[in-house]
Specification:
Strand order of the largest sheet of chain A: 4-11-12-13-10-16
Shape of chain B: globular
Largest sheet of chain A: 6 strands, antiparallel
Strand content of chain A: 5-15%
Chains: A alpha/beta (638), B mainly alpha (229), C alpha+beta (546)
CATH architecture of the largest domain in chain A: 3-Layer(bba) Sandwich
Number of helices of chain A: 13
Shape of chain A: globular
Radius of gyration of chain A: 24 Å
CATH topology of the largest domain in chain A: FAD/NAD(P)-binding domain
Oligomer: heterotrimer
Largest sheet of chain B: 2 strands, antiparallel
Order of helices and strands of chain B: HHHHHHHEHEHHH
Number of helices of chain B: 11
CATH class of the largest domain in chain A: Alpha Beta
Distance between the termini of chain B: 34 Å
Chain lengths: 638, 229, 546
């Protein structure tokens, strides 16, 4: 069979978390699986990725991975129309570039605010993830019943926590999650059976310990603003469950604290989907890389095939095309690329609104976890830049009666100092470069080269020698950052559509319209108050700031404070699950309401997003989808 | 007695000129260790890296960075005579040669010459080196800053860009242009050590270390002395 | 400290040898003894008897005859002239008989002897030369015939010292499932044989009856899939290369004494800072020693040609769910040899690697098309799948029906190139040793390099007042790899797919093994005054505990 006409039992588009998990489970059962991957193949080692990362001037999440974002010679942004399988870049989510489709992959030219999250299109998918794997809490699945006022847009999931719980356990085994169950029982989280996580928890960092001590004894009055509906006299700092080895696990090394989870763990102590993808191909699944799915074909209400385009070089052009035919089709291309494919599939006018879209919900309800980023200096050194990027969080604020009025959030403690936030949000580069430059070159982009902080004779001092080591050693070792990932409620006007801007294969790129709601902004307002409380208990000096021209910047009615948000890298909601085919795209098993042999997986199926990183949940849902496939298509196992 | 640790401390006879071979050739011979490629340095006053120039560079760098010369050049051995005649040594990573070559090729020859001369003339006093550098002309002073940034970050910042940024910070709206010298150079950046950490993406430490202070709480030295930086 | 001259050194050691043996016995009685139900009263005598068994080492120097004059400046090999140049110093070869006999007969070094001064101009080159000489001495001693025949007369299939059951034990015979009685290493040969018999897999028992005396190789995933699942290596005859891991008695004793042989045992012993015993010339103690070897399944004509050291083996294929395991009689040829030795002066261990000379061409040879084949893992006239250093197509698991052939139609054979050529110094050292082995199969082997921790300034010490600025993490919790020299090292048969020069991503023995941990449930606490070394002390063996 030629490589441009493929037949199999199950065709999967996308080899990220969901695609690899499903491919692995199905191929273990002897089912013939083919995966189409838009990007390049699995690499034999990390040489190329690590070289790319080490040599990058901006160590953004995509820095190790292809395709290139900047032209090698002139350092300008490569026009995405000249990239075959492009993806958004962290370098083009702000400034002037974000609205310019000549620089940014996503067309946000008519968007109110920038959607700041990015993803990868390579075998293994978004390997640049942080590795955090908290579960959603029970109330996250029933937001409408518990808290939903009509304006919030909340809906209930068609499944509940108890249904997904056994699949959480299975997913945690495949990912290799390190945590202690005793520490994770909050907000209703329970563990069935005598479950223990696969590995002991990752030890907390010095900063985690410092925050835990500072928040161990609080006055009731101090925490009333949280609206928890109960007295809060302490806030527990708990290890965050992570897909990060704390012991040897399945032939992979334990974490050595490279402090580089995003964008890449040099020793693969952090799980990435190539691990499961390799198991899948070892069990007979076949991976076809450099194949971009271009259209889902519909005949008689069922998917009859998926066409794809092939290419060799990052800048294209197209080298050929083909079609894959299977009994069952799974689209696992992430929360932006999946709706893009569905909407592109017009079937010569037969499906003018795209495939699987009778509800008109495909592409709608795009959600992220906008991050309220705060940072400061502690009075004493706490030695950041050590250990995994994030080891602990305050999780118990993620649920409570307040959710009827404002968005929930978690409090994520960062070990990476000011690397992503210095100078008003990495505008002048990342730390330690910015602070080092300040004191070598007599500038003050970091905000710390002031007489008051340094104890030196004046502002903007330029130093050499012992003064320099002493000052940097003192100031940088006191840096910390705290991020509040804040829930977004569904808004059908936040959506992915198709742009007239094309990529190098001639396909329409995704167009984004995005904003954040008052509900979410009120979450920021409360997070702001919590920040003040935490900083005061820590004795910290606040350096949080927002550049005046930040396109994401906003104010909240009644307060003078200027806010902005960062992207969490979570792309959710755009083909949500539900029981009602008029208001949802897939059912609780992630099967399309419209086409019985089509499944759509990944965090695009989340009807609401809670405050947990989506990877664990989407992996658990993928494992559950496998059961539905096997049940509904028994002839696959011939 | 520990035979594995025979080091040239203090009393070693200096290598006689007859035996001594250009270190460049020596280092080039150790191709297995580092991907060091020797490019011809045309139009440079320092086409040949003599030990003296390297020692001057190390003295200059140590004074400006505040980092001990033994950290900059792990195989350095002081010898018994003039420090300029000491052996800078060759270690497996040999980042000092990469940096010397970079400065040589990209700093103006005149400024680099002035800096090396300042180091030679003031080799007994780090403070004097700093004073003289601060008192020199702009080209020289900003080249000195580029050198510090090389050691601290493994990245090259053009002295001209530094000068423009220092002169009018309000004109800076984006990160100052820099080029990471190499994967190796990034992993040898010193600022991370200075703040008690390691380069992000390059850790040779052991699991769980982040849960403990960088300073060993069990060491008797630290029970009584405050954290010194 | 004055530079110690060769002469004085030698004198001291002639005197000291007798002392060393006495010292050695005294200190060894304090060493861990095999864990058993024996009471401690017998432990000392057992220890004394045990020291006579197991791999022995020597602190003796190689003698050059006639003795070489002072220009050697403290270096420990007897070869006159620098080796870093492109060719051997004129007149160096042939090495005279007496010198050769001394090198080949002196035995396994207890500890390295290296010096930054010597016949090279750069200190680092002298040290590297010292380590490469120490590695060749090690290779010769371990591969000398177990029956005492001199190595230069060894037959290709003469069992070697390291293959003897008194010298090394395979990892899988130590890390037994908790359902089996723990491993033991008796001091008498009958006892050792009985222990081997006990652990012979049921699938191999019949063949073992018919073909006694064969090496038993039990394959697990790591026996065909390179570390961290980077891929199998397929030879030019279409067969999997086979990897095996072994440890010496001192490593074994430490593991058993501290209950590190099971996961539960490790977890229960979480306050232990794992610290294997280390070699020391002074005491004549060898310390911990581990081997990793790679084998090629030999064809009949290869067996006839006798270009490989050969071992008759019974190979138990790896267990794949739902399939039976086969026990295959094969003749294995040695193609790769890692020897790793912990010494008191190099607590990050010393890592050396040898290969068969015909494994692969290097990058320079491929570019210049100057081949010296035929090669074990490269085809000069490759047709078909010829991407260099590509991992094989999946699936990787051996198909039991194919009996360790990779594909039924031989459609894939690894096409491997050594990315980093050997240095001139290594090539010259190899030429010298190969010239002394002309009548032996061992002339077909070469050292790739030796990796050793180079920075002993303050690297393994806890901070002291003398530590140079900045007094920071690297000095307190040191960069425990201590600047390995060379920075990267890969064996083309054992680290095939991670060759390169990118930090952490490319193969470096010490950097990678620095990440090795076990199943202790807390990071081991530092002890004042002792280096805070890695949790499982640079070996991945502990993670294989069940």
């Amino acid at each position: 069979m030629a490589d441009n006409s493929i037949t199999c039992d199950v065709a999967i588009v996308g080899s990220g978390f969901a695609g690899s998990f499903i491919a692995n489970e199905l191929s273990r059962k002897g089912i013939k699986v083919v995966i189409l991957e838009a990007g390049p193949d699995v690499q034999p080692n990390f040489n190329a990725y690590m070289k790319s990362f080490y040599e990058a001037s901006s160590k953004v999440p995509e820095s190790p991975y292809p395709p290139a974002v900047r032209d090698f010679k002139d350092k300008n942004f490569i026009n995405p129309k000249n990239v075959a399988a492009g993806r958004p870049s962290s370098l083009t989510v702000g400034g002037a570039a974000w609205k310019d489709p000549g620089q940014a992959y996503l067309d946000q030219s008519t968007s109110k605010r920038p959607f700041k999250s990015t993803y990868e299109r390579i075998a293994g998918g978004t390997a640049h993830w942080m590795g955090l794997t908290p579960r959603l809490v029970p109330n996250d699945f029933r937001m409408k019943t518990m808290y939903g006022k009509d304006q919030s847009g909340f809906v209930d999931w068609p499944i509940d926590y108890n249904t997904i719980e056994p699949f959480y356990q299975k997913a945690e085994a495949e990912l290799g999650v390190a945590a202690y169950v005793d520490e994770q029982r909050f907000c209703g989280i329970e563990f069935s059976g005598n479950y223990q996580y696969p590995m002991p928890r990752i030890p907390p960092s010095l900063f985690d310990q410092r925050v835990g001590e500072a928040l161990a004894h609080l006055g009731e009055g101090e925490t009333q603003f949280l609206g928890m509906g109960r007295s809060v006299t302490s806030l527990a700092v708990r290890s965050l469950p992570s897909a990060r080895n704390s012991q040897p696990y399945r032939n992979r090394r334990a974490c050595a604290g490279n402090t580089n989870c995003i964008p890449i763990c040099p020793i693969q102590a952090k799980y990435d989907p190539t691990i499961t993808l390799n198991e899948a191909t070892n069990n007979g699944a076949r991976l076809f890389h450099h194949r971009v799915a271009s259209q889902i074909l519909i005949e008689n209400g069922r998917v009859s095939g998926i066409t794809f385009i092939t290419y060799d070089r990052e800048d294209g052009p197209k080298t050929g095309s083909g079609i894959i035919k299977a009994g069952v089709y799974v689209i696992a291309a992430n929360g932006i690329e999946t709706p893009r494919l569905l909407l592109m599939s017009k079937n010569k006018g037969q499906t003018p609104n795209g495939v699987a879209n009778s509800s008109d919900m495909v592409g709608r309800n795009l959600m992220d976890h906008p991050q309220y980023l705060t940072w400061g200096l502690l009075p004493q050194p706490v030695f950041p830049y050590r250990g995994p990027l994030v080891t602990s969080a305050i999780g118990e604020l993620c649920d409570g009666p307040f959710r009827a009025q404002r968005a929930a959030f978690r409090v994520s403690l960062g070990n990476e100092g000011w690397t992503t936030v210095v100078g008003g949000g990495a505008r002048f580069g990342a730390d330690p470069n910015v602070t080092t430059l300040d004191f070598v070159n007599g500038m003050n982009f970091s905000g710390v080269n002031t007489k008051g902080l340094t104890g030196l004779g004046g502002n903007n001092r330029a130093l050499f020698g012992h003064d320099l080591t002493k000052t940097l050693g003192n100031l940088i070792s006191r840096q910390f950052r705290i991020a509040f990932p804040i829930e977004q409620n569904p808004d059908p006007n936040n959506r992915v559509t198709l742009s007239s801007a094309l990529d190098a294969l001639g396909l329409q790129r995704p167009k984004i319209n995005y904003d954040i709601s008052d509900y979410t902004k009120q979450g920021f307002a409360t997070a702001f108050l919590l920040k003040k409380l935490i900083f005061s208990k820590l004795g910290a000096t606040d350096f949080t700031s927002v550049p005046q021209d930040d396109p994401a910047a906003f104010k909240i009615d009644g307060t003078p404070e200027l806010f902005t948000y960062g992207g969490a890298g979570h792309v959710m909601g755009t083909y949500r699950m539900g029981n009602d085919s008029k208001t949802s795209v897939v059912d609780g098993w992630q099967r399309s309401h419209d086409h019985t042999n089509l499944y759509l997986v990944g965090s695009g199926t989340f009807p609401t997003v809670g405050t947990a990183n989506p990877t664990l949940t989407l992996s658990a849902l993928a494992l559950r989808t496998v059961e539905d496939i096997v049940k509904n298509f028994p002839s696959l196992r011939s | 007695m520990d035979y594995g640790r025979e080091r040239n401390t203090g009393d070693t006879e200096p290598l006689t000129p007859a035996v001594k071979i250009s270190r460049r050739a020596m280092v080039a011979g150790m191709v297995a260790t580092t991907a060091v490629v020797f490019l011809p340095l045309s139009n440079s006053a320092f086409a040949k890296t003599s030990d003296q120039d390297m020692m001057a560079f190390l003295l200059l760098s140590s004074a400006l960075t505040g980092v001990d010369i033994k950290t900059l050049a792990p195989e350095f051995s002081p010898g018994s005579g003039d420090i300029l005649s000491a052996d800078p040594g060759t270690d497996p990573i040999d980042i000092k040669s990469d940096y010397f070559r970079q400065v040589n090729a990209h700093g103006t020859a005149a400024s680099f010459a002035k800096l090396l001369q300042i180091a030679k003339d003031n080799r007994l006093s780090k403070d004097n080196i700093i004073v003289k550098v601060n008192a020199s002309d702009d080209d020289t002073k900003f080249l000195a800053r580029s050198i510090v940034l090389l050691w601290y970050l493994g990245s090259w910042y053009e002295p001209g860009d530094l000068k423009n940024a220092a002169a009018s910070p309000e004109s800076v709206h984006a990160p100052i242009k820099q080029r990471v010298l190499s994967a190796k150079a990034y992993t040898q950046g010193l600022v991370w050590q200075i703040v008690g950490a390691h380069p992000m993406g390059y850790s040779n430490l052991q699991f769980g270390y982040w849960s403990r202070e960088p300073r060993d709480p069990n060491s008797p030295l630290d029970l009584f002395s405050p954290a010194k930086l | 400290m004055k530079l110690i001259r060769l002469g004085r050194h030698t004198q001291w050691f002639i005197l000291g040898l007798g002392l060393a043996i006495a010292f050695g016995l005294a200190s060894l009685s304090a060493f861990p003894t095999p864990s058993s139900a024996q009471n401690t009263a017998t432990a000392t005598t057992t220890a004394t008897a045990a020291t006579a068994l197991g791999l022995q080492c020597t602190s003796m120097l190689v003698r050059n005859n006639p003795p070489t004059p002072d220009p050697l400046k403290g270096q420990m090999d007897p070869f006159l002239g620098p080796l870093v140049g492109p060719s051997l110093p004129a007149g160096l070869l042939p090495i005279n008989d007496a010198t050769r006999k001394s090198i080949f007969g002196v035995g396994l070094p207890c500890q390295e002897r290296v010096s930054p001064s010597g016949q090279e101009s750069v200190g680092l080159d002298n040290l590297q030369r010292g380590f490469d000489f120490y590695s060749w001495r090690t290779f010769i001693a371990l591969n000398s015939p177990a029956d005492g025949t001199p190595i230069e007369q060894a037959q290709a299939d003469a069992p070697t010292l390291w293959e003897d059951m008194n010298s090394f034990k395979q990892l899988l015979d130590v890390m037994l499932p908790a359902t089996q009685l723990p491993a033991k290493w008796p001091t008498d040969r009958a006892g050792m044989e009985a222990e081997q018999e006990r652990l012979i897999p049921v699938e191999c028992r019949d063949l073992h009856q018919k073909m006694p005396g064969r090496m038993i190789v039990k394959m697990i995933e790591e026996s065909f899939n390179e570390p961290f699942k980077t891929g199998p290596l397929i030879d030019q005859l279409g067969h999997y290369a086979i990897f095996d891991i072994l440890m010496n008695r001192q490593m074994f004793d430490y593991i058993m004494l501290n209950h590190l042989n099971t996961k539960a045992g490790q977890a229960a012993n979480s306050s232990l800072a794992v610290d294997f015993p280390a070699g020391l010339n002074l005491s004549g103690n060898l310390g911990a020693f581990m081997l990793k070897v790679s084998w090629k399944i030999l064809s009949d004509s290869e067996i006839q040609a006798k270009n490989f050291h050969m071992v008759k083996a019974l190979v138990l294929t790896p267990g794949i769910p739902n399939t039976a395991r086969n026990c295959l009689p094969e003749t294995l040829g040695l193609v790769g040899f890692h020897a790793v030795h912990k010494t008191t002066s190099r607590p990050q261990w010393i890592w050396t690697s040898f290969e068969h000379v015909k494994n692969v061409p290097d990058r320079d040879e491929v570019t210049a098309k100057k081949f010296n084949g035929p090669y074990n893992f490269y085809s000069v006239n490759c047709k078909g799948a010829c991407t260099e250093n590509a991992t094989p197509p999946r699936p990787w698991d051996p198909d039991p029906a194919l009996e360790l052939k990779f594909r039924h139609d031989d459609s894939f054979k690894s096409q491997i190139v050594r990315e980093t050529p050997l240095t001139n110094a290594a090539k010259n050292m190899n030429a010298i040793f190969q010239s002394m082995l002309t009548n032996s199969v061992w002339k077909n082997y070469m050292v790739i390099s030796t990796q050793w921790p180079s920075n002993t300034n303050n690297c393994t010490k806890l901070q002291s007042a003398e530590s140079p600025d900045p007094k920071t993490d690297f000095l307190k919790q040191p960069d425990m790899t201590c600047s390995p020299a060379p920075t990267f090292l890969a064996n083309s048969t054992l680290e095939t797919y991670s060759q390169g020069d990118i930090p952490l991503a490319s193969s470096s023995c010490i950097a990678c093994h620095g990440n090795a941990v076990g199943f202790q449930t807390s990071a081991s606490n530092p002890r004042p005054g002792k280096p805070n070394l890695n949790q499982s002390d640079f070996t991945f063996m502990l993670e294989k505990a069940q």
